[in-house]
Amino acid sequence: xxxxxxxxTILFLLTVTAVMITVKARGEYSSPEQCDLFxxxxxxxxxxxLYKPATCPFIEREFRCEANGRPxxxxxxxxxxxxxxxxxxxxxxxxxxxxxxxxxMFVGDSLSxxxxxxxxxxxxxxxxxxxxxxxxxGDVSIFTFTEYEVKVMxxxxxxxxxxVREDIGRVLKLDSIEGSKLWNGVDMLIFNTWHWWYRRGPTxxxxxxxxxxEVMKDMDRMKAFERALIxxxxxVDANIDPTKVxxxxxxxxxxHYNGTLWNEPTAKSCIREKTPVPGSTYPGGLPPAVGVLxxxxxxxxxxxxxxxxxTLSLLRKDGHxxxxxxxxxxxxxxxxxxxSGVPDFWNEILYNLx
Length: 354
Ligand SMILES: *[C@@H]1O[C@H](CO)[C@@H](O)[C@H](O)[C@H]1NC(C)=O
Ligand SMILES: *[C@@H]1O[C@H](CO)[C@@H](O)[C@H](O)[C@H]1NC(C)=O
What we know:
This protein has 354 residues and is of the alpha/beta class.
């Protein structure tokens, strides 16, 4: 009896091992949907970048680091490599073919503009002879690939919830989301809000906050951010038909102004950073906003995919414009990203998810 049980145990262990080996093998050669696309490392790959900035005439000065004089270009040759698979290389023609007749809209602040510009560059450089038009209607920029009838749009909306001019001044209304009118009928929506929540002083674009019928001069900014996300989440649940519309959240794009967080305590910014943080983890950990965002996303009943780009972007202390951005030597931009650069991989991941 004892021997028989022993044999069964061995058989059981062998089976478990075989299953584990199969799973592991599948993981290594897997298609991206079986693998965690957001845990990985940056590797040098001379076949990147996916486009030369010069082939994309409409990159704004803000992101055009090379033309603004950035001398080191190694940062453009890194590719994001998830630990257990390879990303499918972005294929602009395939993307446009699959989106034929459809519309995509990025909604959010200048980090959305960064990703939108990356997307239009990826698509245009793949098909440089395909006609396009660019138009602006109010706050919405519309890039149309006319032969494919694909619209790639940007709705500039830094809080997602409304800022309304009233008698007392400009009111940030955490429970109001009338701006959502512009999102109706779009086939793929990619939202983002974060960078404007801690603005104070002359660049803060509101005078009062209104929440739950109460108007106040200010409140805990992280709570305000969370409240706005809850309002947005309720809008998604009430308005999105998942059979027609695909919804993404861009995630929290990180800044690099404190070298202590990447074990370089003397660094006060991202200037002269030429290489990514090696490995898969960021010494400084995640910004607290990520936890708030994830907890609100977990309450949404409709399917929303988080482009969980925070860690992979945290590793790219070398990816920002620094003094090669909008204000040149007078500026120090360690918030936005050079193009070509990091947002191309946010889009490559997006491509792998659709
Ligand atoms: C692009 O537009 C031009 C001018 O309108 C037109 O002559 C050309 O045939 C178009 N190209 C394609 C590939 O549709
Ligand atoms: C940088 O980060 C460290 C670690 O979190 C913190 O102690 C320090 O105050 C920060 N420095 C600045 C200038 O914010």
